[in-house]
Structure formats: structure tokens, C-alpha cells
Amino acid sequence: MSTSFASASPTTAPPPRPADGPERRPRVLIGTDTYPPDVNGAAYFTERLARGLAGRGARVHVVCPSPEGSPRTVERDGVVEHRLRSMSSLVHDSVRLAVPLGVRGHLDLLLDRLEPDAVHIQNHFLVGRMLAAAARARGVPVVATNHFMPENLFDYVRVPGPLRPYAARIAWWDLGAVLSRTEHVTTPTPAAAGLLRDQGFAKPVEPVSCGVDLAGFSPLDGGAASKRRLRARLGVPDRTTVLFVGRLDEEKRAEELVRATARTASAQLLLAGHGAYRRSLEELAVSEGVADRVVFLGFVPQEDLPDVYRCADVFAIAGVAELQSIATLEAMASGLPVVAADAMALPHLVEEGRNGYLYRPGSPEELAARIEDVVADEGGRLRMGEHSRAMASRHRLEDSLERFERIYLEAAGERRSRRPPGPF
């Protein structure tokens, strides 16, 4: 259903509000400027959070831009999505922006109608900023999770290099202005929390992992024969495979992976994802003489991702602006050793020599050497994969969901006990 308003409004009777008590699940309205089918870590995290909470019995609504442009309301997997009228972002093909006209009024109506325990904003742009303001006006607690680093936007908006330090200061100031007016701030890792503090953010910041589904992502059973069958099904040549999963955009620095492949003896690089940088990477593979050893899978549906990880031997990631990296966690849960850039939060996911190695960003020679160290020793590679799986178990999705539930109810505090029950 849709209307001419900023977003469609729910017209059916909402499900009964969960009873108050020690096991009561929260009622939460999540606001985000990016949500699937957008392809990025923040969008994936928000979708898994929403669906995971709903699967645990929480009442979850999400307000986000429409992928088609026209507004509508739809329910998927227990989550009610309020899709706002949207327009092209002009800087990225897969991201649309909510049309500002009418958004605040619609958010006011949603909050009055839904009466959530808390709202949870995933960014400080249009939707997150306006939802936070509307919630504060009604005394609804605001929880914020930061997925933002200015460096991840500069390539899209074409900020000239000399201006980037000044633009970054303005961007960090703007982020701090929004987050400082929230009740609780989280970010995926201690490194990401430290980054906020380094930028002068004074409020406490709690690291809460994005989490990983340990049942959905698990090591391959059946040994080499099973791996050959998986590779055949996916159209991947049967040889030692280095995997990267993610957007093929400039800030992911996948060119280092291609150059490292040219410096390994025989490993192939499997790139699962799409993006504006793919053509440049294809040309680089040709110029480096490894076009026959760089395989582009393109976009991989979520249901096929576990098998993509299982068909690989090692996972590599070159980004220097990762606040956690969901793909790396999925690779670890799948029993893969990791070779990662020694930058931002990636060192949290690598125990040197135990589940993989770090390398200096900008050094494809060192990256290639670390990859060779992993694949040259079959027994050591398997032990590293087992340790990766053990490390991933510290990031159970269920633990993250449980913590967010507690944050919402704690943030609601006395306000919840003072008001009469309302529909959601």
C-alpha cells in the first residue's frame, strides 16, 4: 500500500503490546538512511538487528528510504518497514535519500501511534537526525549506533585531497552534535569507540559487536571433495583461493588484493560483490598479468554467501576504515584464516600467527607474503581456521541482540512505568 505522504502509514491493527514483566520484549522504532537492498555494512547490520529482535519477540518498526522512490509500508519477517519517499543520492547508484518534505510530520505521527520504548538511529543524516529530534520532543529515549567515518564518504562526494582534513573535522563535529543529544551511544568495537573519543566526543560509548550468525556461517564439512563440488557449483576454478566479500568501491582498496595475487605463486583471488570500481579492478588484473587468477562473482545473494566462504582457503581484506567488518566475522565463523590490513578495527579480529596475520596497508608485497605463509602449511591453515571459529564465537549475534534489548529497556527507565500501556 502507498500514499502521497512522505511514507505510507500503517492502517491495520497492530499486534498486542507484550506484557510488562522481567521477560517483556522491547518496542523499538529503528531509523536509518540505508537499508537493504542497499549494499553496505550499516544496512546489513540494521536489517539483521531488526529481524533478530523481531525473532526474539520484540515489536520492531524500521523507517528508511524507499528503494523505488514511492512511499509504502510493508511487513517482512516480523519487521514493519515504513519506506519514505526517496530520490537518487547522485553520488552512488545503490543509495537513495529520503525526500525531506513531510518526513518530520510523518515521524511525529509514527511516534504517537507506536509509542516505542526507544528509538534506535543508525546514522546522523536525514532520517536519523529527524527521528532523534522527534523522539526527544516526546520524551522517547534515543539510542544511537555509529557506523560512520568521513573517509568512507570522501571518494563518493569527490572531496579534493587537500580539503579532506577540514571536511573531516566538520563531519566529526556534526556527528558529535547529533550523538551528544542521545541517551546511549554504541559502536561495534573498542577501536571504533576510541575513535569517537579521539574526536572529542565526551559521552560514554559502549562497544557492542555487530555479531555473527554462528549457525548460518560454519566451516565446510567433507574436506577437499566437498570444496571441489562447491567451487564447481559457483563456477570457481578448483585452486587455492583467497576470498574478499564486499563492495568493489574505492575505499575497500581491493586493488591491493589484485596486486598481491600477482606476487603469489599460484593462488587465485575470488571477489564476491559489485561496485563502481569493478572495471578498474578488471583492467588492473589484466595489466598485472593475473586476469586468469582473479574471479569476479558479482553480487551474491545472502542464501549463497555461506557456500562462498566455504569454497575459499583464506580471507583477505585491505580496507583501512573498517569499524568492525561483518564480512570478516562471517569468514572467521566459516573457519577461514584472515589476512587483514593493520588498520582501524581489523586488528581486533586477528591474533597474529593464531588465526592469521596483519600486514602494512599499501604493501601488496607484504600481503602476498602473509597469504603464502597461510596457504603453504595445510595443517597450520586448518588450525588457524579453527581458531578463527573460536574467536567468532565471542561475537554471537544472539548476545548482541540481547544487549540491545537491555539497552532499550534501560533507556526507557521510569518513563515506561509511568505511562499506561499503548498499542504497537
Task: Describe the structure concisely.
With 424 residues, the chain is of the alpha/beta class. Helices cover 39% and strands 17% of the residues. The strands form 3 sheets. An 8-stranded mixed β-sheet has the order 3-4-2-1-7-8-9-10, sandwiched between helices.
Task: Please provide a written account of the structure.
39% of the residues lie in helices and 17% in strands. It contains 14 helices and 16 strands. It has helices spanning 41-55, 103-114, 126-137, 151-157, 164-179, 190-198, 223-234, 254-261, 278-287, 305-310, 326-333, 364-375, 378-392, 397-418, and strands at 27-31, 59-65, 72-76, 79-84, 86-88, 96-98, 118-121, 142-145, 184-187, 205-207, 241-245, 268-272, 294-298, 314-317, 338-341, 356-359. Strand 1 (27-31), helix 1 and strand 2 form a beta-alpha-beta unit. Helix 2 (103-114) crosses helix 3 and helix 8 packs across helix 12. It is globular. The protein starts with 26 loop residues before the first strand and ends in a 6-residue tail after the last helix.
Helical segment count: 14
Helix content: 25-40%
**H/E element order:** EHEEEEEHEHEHHEHEHEHEHEHEHEEHHH
The outline comes out as globular
Return residue spans where pLDDT drops below 50 for at least 5 consecutive residues. Answer: 1-22, 420-424
β-strand percent reads 15-25%
Structural class: alpha/beta
Average residue-wise pLDDT = 90
Computed Rg: 22 Å
Main attributes?
8-stranded mixed sheet, globular, alpha/beta, 6-stranded parallel sheet, 39% helix, disordered N terminus
